[in-house]
Design a protein that fits this description.
The structure is a single chain. By secondary structure, this protein is an all-alpha fold. The chain folds into 2 domains: about 50 residues, no CATH class; about 35 residues, no CATH class. It is about 60% helix and about 0% strand. Helix 1 runs antiparallel to helix 2. The radius of gyration is 17 Å and the shape is elongated.
């Protein structure tokens, strides 16, 4: 089964490297990012970059603050799989 995101984003909004991620984060998060990255073993660095890249994408995305707060508070609206499939089919998007 493959899925395409209904909401497309500009892939280069936050470059997938340390400098790009750091530039997208606020000062408090940037310090935490650097702290984690500097003490990480080489085999841990990729996972840290991926996690912080996701954080940077949320922070820089339209409605990012709302999405983050709703996720943390457990108030993020969700739908069941059947409804998601029906929406994709009605939009003529692949569901396989």
């Amino acid at each position: 089964m493959s899925a395409l995101s209904v909401r497309q984003h500009k892939p280069d909004r936050v470059p997938r490297n340390g400098a790009g991620i750091a530039a997208a984060l606020d000062s408090v998060k940037r310090l935490e990012f650097y702290r984690e990255l500097l003490v990480a073993a080489p085999e841990e660095a990729e996972a840290i970059l991926k996690r912080w890249w996701c954080e940077a994408m949320l922070d820089t995305g339209p409605g990012g603050d709302w999405l983050t707060l709703a996720s943390l508070n457990g108030t993020l609206p969700t739908i069941d799989v059947i409804t998601a499939i029906e929406r994709r089919r009605s939009a003529r998007l692949p569901v396989e």
